[in-house]
Specification:
196 residues; alpha/beta; three-stranded mixed beta sheet; 6 helices; 33% helix; globular
């Protein structure tokens, strides 16, 4: 979940609590003392998880080598682990790190998020020269990349172009070896992003 969404959720919760409080009364509809709010548990678990992420010089995040993504669904924080990724000392013991949270579920996935982001960056650099590419980004829940293109674009041609890029740029190493554009991408119709 993006930091802006987390801040929005926390501010919304705080404003609801403050507006429902009257002098000397407990706010109505709140969780009794000692019981966490349903969303607070996953958000706190997310904050704990992010302590094992590193920040690149100049911005950006470097994830542990086996980290495939995370998402909140209701009261559950799902953490995806790339089980085929090479383990190293840079891979945290997620279960130990998050042992205090009963709202965490671990999912097994194939592709590490760092690998998907490397492919994303290289493919986007090359595709936008030829095609009307409007959006590209990881879908952590589905463990792939989503590519939004103009509806007039030939998607089959784009898949073929991505396959060429993957081969030429030698991006198919480690767990990506033997994958194709169709394994890594979903290409969808999209509209240009407007910043009005």
């Amino acid at each position: 979940m993006k930091p802006a969404k987390i801040v929005f959720l926390l501010l919304t919760l705080l404003s609801v609590l403050l507006t429902s409080c009257k002098a000397g009364q407990e706010p109505t509809g709140t969780v009794p003392a000692g019981k966490p709010s349903p969303q607070i548990g996953p958000l706190e678990a997310w904050d704990t998880l992010t302590t094992c992420f590193q920040t690149k010089e100049g911005g950006g995040t470097v994830y542990p080598p086996d980290y495939a993504g995370a998402w909140i669904d209701g009261e559950i924080l799902h953490i995806a682990i790339a089980t085929e990724a090479e383990r190293s000392e840079d891979c945290p013991d997620y279960e130990a790190l998050l042992a205090g949270f009963d709202c965490v579920v671990f999912e097994e996935e194939k592709y590490p998020l760092n690998d998907l982001l490397s492919v994303q960056n290289r493919v986007f650099q090359r595709l936008h020269e030829t095609f009307k590419v409007y959006t590209i980004g990881p879908d952590e829940k589905e463990n792939l990349l989503r590519l939004g293109v103009d509806k007039s674009e030939d998607k089959e041609q784009i898949y073929n172009c991505i396959d060429e890029i993957l081969m030429e740029d030698d991006l198919l190493t480690g767990v990506l070896k033997g994958t194709t554009a169709r394994d890594l991408f979903v290409i969808e119709d999209s509209e240009p992003v407007r910043y009005d």
